[in-house]
Amino acid sequence: MLIGYSMPAVNAVSLAAGASWLTTDAGAAMFDGKPARATRIQRTSGSPTINITLASAIVVRVIALLGLNLPEGVTVAAAGASGVTRRLQDGSVACWLVVPAAAATASVSVVITTTQGVIEIGELVVMPAVSVRIDAGWKISLVDPTVVSETVGMQIFADERRPYRRLPVTLSMDTEARVRGGGLANGMDWARLRYALTRAARCVAIPRWETAAGSGVVDAAKLHESAVYGYTDVLGDIEQVRGPWWRWSPAFREIPPAT
After folding, report:
1. Which of 29, 79, 151, 188 is 20 to 30 Å from the Cα of 113, by its Cα?
2. Using a CB cutoff of 8 Å and minimum separation of 24, what contacts does 154-162 make?
3. Does domain 2-128 fall into CATH 1.10.1740.10?
């Protein structure tokens, strides 16, 4: 499983020649943690390119474009990885990329190969990530927060709200090095990661993304099916099971895009 965390603030975002901003946010809405609020881009020529300068350098591992108005099959390339847009279970369109680990960078360019005139992007995610093992039996729940009331005559009135997915997991038992000894990528460990996920910090949880576990080869269908962008609504306890073995059970809650 990949867990993306701690996207730095965006110092600057610009469009290459051939595209311009249609919304007054000038790209800021793509990084506000609210996929339902979209930035609109006018394409006039070529493939629209979004140039991002982060406040600090990171080892980019996960990139996602969420809440798109593009059709399926549009190619998106960034940080040495590429993929195509896909329609998700909720009807929205997204493109998820898992990027091979490379040197830390503060500059990322995203190229969208399309001839569509107006492009909407709800959220653009650029994060480092760590790989952890999780126990079998994980599940992605669909939560419908719609409030239903009834009349005396048992007629139904619904205050409709946007359904969202929820992913509770249990990290497989592991030893001190990965729990609090900096034994994960980027010097992270479970304890540091848990702190990075506090205060409703935006994060990414991807339980399935490889063709085979540990292969490092991206399975785009699994990736788009299981990736969750949101925050941890349960941080969970890091508990000592026995001897040197520890376990942790966080839960991730989706922030859904508009459809």
Report:
1. 29
2. 162/36, 162/256, 162/258
3. no
Cβ-count burial 77-112 (b if 16+ within 10 Å, e if not) = bbbebebebbebeeebbbbbbbbeeeeeeeebebbb
What's the distance, CA 185 to chain centroid?
A: 18
Cβ neighbours around 135 below 10 Å, total: 12
Q: Is the pLDDT of residue 175 over 70?
A: yes
3-class state of residue 90 by DSSP = coil
Tokens 């990661």 found at: 193
Q: What is the pTM of this model?
A: 0.94
Report the pLDDT value the prediction gives residue 7, as an integer from 0 to 100: 97
Distances (CA, A) of 111 to 51, 59, 68, 147, 202: 9, 19, 14, 41, 23
Does residue 259 register a pLDDT over 70? no
User: What are 24's two structure tokens?
Assistant: 């007054």
Domain boundaries along the sequence of the chain: 2-128, 131-254
- At position 79, the amino acid (one-letter code) is A
CA distances from residue 97 to 8, 125, 242 in whole angstroms, order as listed: 18, 10, 37
Q: How far is CA 16 from CA 19, 69, 78, 154, in A?
A: 6, 20, 14, 58
Confidence of residue 126 (pLDDT cuts 50, 70, 90): very high
Question: How high is the pLDDT of residue 110?
Answer: 98
Q: What is the mean pLDDT of residues 123-145?
A: 96
DSSP state, 226?
Answer: H
